[in-house]
Design goal:
The chain is of the alpha/beta class. It has a single domain, classed as Rossmann fold (3-Layer(aba) Sandwich). Helix 7 packs across helix 9. It starts with a helix and ends with a strand. It has nine helices and seven strands, in the order αααβαβααββαβααββ. It has a seven-stranded mixed beta sheet, sandwiched between helices.
């Protein structure tokens, strides 16, 4: 009986620990969250560079990075737009603090600002941005279609949303990836479902590209001119 109880307790503790660690990807917090963010900055660099290759960043662009995480993408975007301005939002206070630390010099120079906010209620006026990016974050948005519409609201007519992720349903190894995505309560979409979500939200000229060997996906949509 003691052996069974011990095994049960060990199993419960192990599952609890796994869920806690998985939760750090969804909403980083505490010291472990800070370590997770630093790891994400490194891990997501390659897929970010690949995905940004599907758009053109003007030197004077006003850019918003939604779900900015540890802030490395903000830093990249600020380098692409030396005459512009980059804003970042994240619903995790730990992420905001880390992004502010990483971009301390750019913030002091007035080129960057980082705020705590949900994608569902962006703290910006209509038609504020020339470009919005979302890297490895749309999995966790509360209501994907409505949140895409909120992004559409803050884009200028003709401006683009670039959504980048390192996994999608239908890639090689989907079966193995499905379980961790389920534990994360993440939206795990096919290529067609990404395209359909953009279209349903009101985006035009939707293009979805994949890097099949790595399982990467990039969806780009524009705000209609009228």
């Amino acid at each position: 009986m003691n052996s069974i109880l011990s095994t049960t307790v060990t199993g419960v503790v192990s599952v609890g620990a796994a869920l806690y660690l998985v939760g750090q990807c969804r909403k980083p917090h505490s010291w472990l969250g800070r370590r997770t963010l630093k790891a994400m900055n490194l891990r997501h660099s390659g897929v970010t560079d690949w995905g940004l290759g599907f758009t053109r960043v003007k030197p004077d662009a006003r850019i918003l990075d939604v779900g900015c995480g540890g802030g490395r993408t903000i830093q990249k975007l600020a380098g692409f737009a030396p005459l512009g301005h980059v804003s970042g939002v994240d619903y995790s206070g730990t992420s905001v603090a880390e992004a502010q630390r990483v971009n301390e010099a750019e913030i002091a120079a007035g080129k960057v600002d980082v705020r705590q906010s949900s994608v569902s209620h962006l703290p910006f006026g209509d038609a504020s941005f020339d470009l919005v990016t979302a890297i490895e974050t749309h999995y966790y948005w509360p209501n994907l279609i409505e949140d895409l519409r909120e992004v559409l609201r803050v884009l200028k007519p003709g401006a683009s949303l670039v959504l980048i992720a390192e996994t999608y349903r239908g890639q090689a190894g989907t079966f193995a990836i499905a379980l961790p995505m389920a534990l994360l309560r993440a939206k795990y979409l096919t290529v067609d479902q990404h395209r359909e979500a953009f279209t349903a939200a009101g985006f035009a000229d939707v293009q979805v590209s994949v890097e099949r060997k790595k399982g990467w996906i990039c969806a780009v949509g524009k705000k209609p001119l009228k």
